[in-house]
Amino acid sequence: MEIVTQQGHSASILGLAASGGMDVTCIAAAFEAGINYFFFYDFTNEKFLAGLRSLLATKREQVLVATGSQERDLNWLRRDFDSVRQQLNIDVVDAFFVEYIYPAEDLEQVEALLEQLQLWQEKGLVRYVGVSTHNRAIALELIKRGKCELLMHRYNMAHRKAEESVLPSAQTAGIPVIAFTCTRWGTLLKGHPNWQEKPPTAADCYRYVLSHGAVRLALTAPQNLQQLQENLAVLPAPPLSPAEIARWQAYGDLIYGNGEDAFETQWM
């Protein structure tokens, strides 16, 4: 399945995600550079929302608005959904996600939330229904149940186990994957004592993630215009060569280590 704007244009391979310190000018600059997918978790990032409101005022049909809710109660889900539409002054949310599904959850309850989103979709209020999770087993189960059209999933040079089953399963099912934590919370950019070469740039991290055929777009959350400009280098860049992929996999193995720190275990 392809992700398209209301005008029918394909989603950009890089999506701009809200972050706490993001400069309000990043939204317009990202759009001008070719980004048309904008994601936020909640209403705490006012600068991002202000920039997005301004963009939507004149470019609504050219922009994909993506957000979601961590609520598991249907009434609170409705509240979050209505708040998005009111705060952005839009009728339709392009992509809405049931967010951060974790192992202890009741998947039947999650499925009820997805069914509510599908009802809104039938009414034309939501265009794409999605889920986000760090957990591979949950991702596989939700793909199997066929209840979501988009999957947001953790994937980067260090976190590559999704390549074994989640990404192939999503690809077979025709479910586009939106990759997040592509820089592993920035730690991939810091290097490693046993790595003698330069560490990857953020653009390298996005290029690696996008090299997998299941990944439709990668989320980036720069803090300022300079970081945004650096990250935008991925848009015109060619695909990674097999040698480059192998190189970054070796680097990712060093960063991952024994897989016992909080980054690897918190959401498993």
Please give the structural blueprint.
Blueprint: E1 14-17, H1 25-33, E2 37-39, H2 46-59, E3 64-69, H3 74-88, E4 93-98, H4 107-122, E5 126-133, H5 136-145, E6 150-154, H6 166-173, E7 177-180, H7 202-210, E8 215-220, H8 225-231, H9 242-256, H10 262-265
Helix pairs in contact: 1-2, 5-6
What does this protein structure show overall?
With 268 residues, the chain is an alpha/beta fold. The protein has helices at residues 25-33, 46-59, 74-88, 107-122, 136-145, 166-173, 202-210, 225-231, 242-256, 262-265, and strands at 14-17, 37-39, 64-69, 93-98, 126-133, 150-154, 177-180, 215-220. It has one domain (14-265): NADP-dependent oxidoreductase domain (TIM Barrel, Alpha-Beta Barrel). The protein has 10 helices and 8 strands. An 8-stranded parallel β-barrel has the order 1-2-3-4-5-6-7-8, surrounded by 5 helices. Helix 4 links the parallel strand 4 and strand 5. The radius of gyration is 18 Å and the shape is globular. It starts with 13 loop residues before the first strand and ends with a helix.
